[in-house]
Amino acid sequence: MLLKINNTEISVYPKEFTVTPLDIDNGESTVRTADGTLNRDRVAVKRQIEMSWGVLSWEDVSSILQAMQDVFFDFYYPDPMTGQYETKTFYVGNRPTPAALSKNGQILWSGLKVTLTEK
User: Fold this and answer.
1) Strand partners for 106
2) How far is CA 96 from CA 1, 26, 115, in A?
3) Which of 34, 61, 78, 97 has CA 20 to 30 A from 54's CA?
4) Nearest 5°: CA angle at 54, between 83 and 65?
């Protein structure tokens, strides 16, 4: 598997990688009728990607977070729906980075999680 942010391979690969196709509906015209029938106006199918890592060095966690610091960025990944690698524009939501600990004078981070959502 190959993962790139802005055409640069990420420094450490995630231990978990999940791609979710998301249906985007027009909220005004997607409604249920009185008998419960759904009238749906799907306007797009976007992707949401969740990734998480195990223990990371301070340098590696910083590299990953800095690669995603722009408001939007290109992400290259294997797409299960299209059956090929894709490059799409994403933004990142919250980026919790728990469990900082020190080992032999080096700070380590464990449990970085990110959620990318297609623009």
Assistant:
1) 103
2) 24, 31, 10
3) 78
4) 75
Helices (H), 1-119: 58-67
DSSP E strands in 10-83: the ranges are 16-25, 31-32, 38-39, 42-52, 55-57, 73-79
Q: What is the pLDDT of residues 4-37, one digit of tens each?
A: 999 999 989 999 999 999 998 887 877 888 888 8
Give the alpha-carbon dihedral of 38, 39, 44, 47, to 10 degrees: 0
Per DSSP, what are the bridge partners of residue 52?
16, 113
What would the two tokens of residue 61 be? 């966690």
**Nearest-angstrom CA–CA distance, 12 and 31:** 44
| Total residues belonging to the chain | 119
What pLDDT is attached to residue 44? 92
- The CA distance from 74 to 68, in Å, is 9
Question: Could you read off the pLDDT of 63-89 as tens digits, one per residue?
Answer: 999 999 999 999 999 999 999 999 999
Centre a 10 Å sphere on the Cβ of residue 100 and count the other Cβ atoms it contains: 11
